[in-house]
Amino acid sequence: MKILVTGANGYIGRHVVSQLLNMGHRVIACDLCLTNVDERAEKLEMDLFSVSENVFNEVGSPDVCIHLAWRDGFVHNSNNHLGDLSGHFRFLTAMIDGGLKQLVVMGTMHEVGYHEGAIDENTPCNPLSMYGIAKDSLRRAMLLYCKAKECILQWCRAYYILGDDKNNHSIFTKLLEADAAGKEKFPFTTGKAKYDFITVDELAHQIACVAVQKEVTGIINCCSGKPVSLAERVEQYIAEHGLKIRLEYGAYPDREYDSPCVYGDVSKIVKIIY
C-alpha cells in the first residue's frame, strides 16, 4: 500500500514510518522537517496548513493517510490546540474531497475527560483540557464528514506513552534529565492513580496494523488494556534504567482531570492484530 504519514518527524510518527516500512509498504513521510525519519521513506516537506485544494494529488494520491501531525501534544492547555483546529480540518477535508478513501487519525484518551474504568468507543466525552477539547472536536467533525463522503475513518485513541523518552517531554523525560543533573529527589504526586501505559514502539505497531486493514473502523483504542499505578510504573522505570534518583511522594497534587483508574477496552485492537 501507498501510505502518507503526516507528523512523520514527530515522537510517534518516526516509529510508525519505520513499522510500515518493515511491513513492506511504501511510505510518504510528511512534516515541516524530516531530519529523524527512516531513510527508506519518501520524504515530503510541507506545511499542512498552507496547502491547496489539490493536496491529495500533490502528496501522491495515497491509499491511506495516517494523520499524526499535532503541535504541543504534551502541553495540554496550549492555545495552539484550538488555534490549529481549523487547519487540521481544512487539510483532512481537502484530502477526502480529492479522493482519499481511508483516513487514520491520532486521538487521545483526554477526549473523554474524567472517567473511571474502561473506555470504549461508546464512552461519553467531556474533555477537560484544551488538548482534549480540540481532539474531541476534530473527531466529531471527521466522523460526520467521512460518513457523508464514504471515506473509512479509523480514530486511534492513545493512552499513556513511554519509550524513546528523550523525545516525549513526559515524566520519564524529566526523570532522565533530573538524574543526569545529579538530583537526589524528584517531586512527585501521590502516584496512586492507575493508567494504561504503552511503549511508543508497540503503539506504532498497533497504528500500523489499524491502517493496513479496512474491516475494523471507528474509534479504536491503541493501548495495553491493563491499568498500572503511576507510582509502580515510574519506580519500575527507575529500576530498569538504573537511576539513582528517588521519588518525593506528595510534593505535587494529582491533576484534577485525572481519574483514579482509567484504561482502554482492547477488544477492537485485539481483533485487528490477532
What does this structure look like?
The chain is α/β, with parallel strands linked by helices and 274 residues long. The protein has a single domain, classed as Rossmann fold, CATH 3.40.50.720. Helices cover 34% and strands 23% of the residues. Helix 1 (13-22) links the parallel strand 1 (2-6) and strand 2. The longest helix is centred in the middle third of the chain and has 20 residues, at 130-149. The mean pLDDT is 95.
Give the % helix.
25-40%
Instruction: Indicate the proportion of strand residues.
Output: 15-25%
Q: State mean pLDDT (0 to 100 scale).
A: 95
Total helices: the number is 9
Let me know the number of strands.
14
Remind me, CATH topology? Rossmann fold
Extract low-pLDDT stretches. Answer: none
Distance between the termini: 20 Å
Number of domains: 1
CATH-derived architecture: 3-Layer(aba) Sandwich
Instruction: Give the neighbour order of strands across the main sheet.
Output: 3-2-1-4-5-7-11
Classified by CATH, the class is Alpha Beta
Task: Please give the radius of gyration in angstroms.
Answer: 19 Å
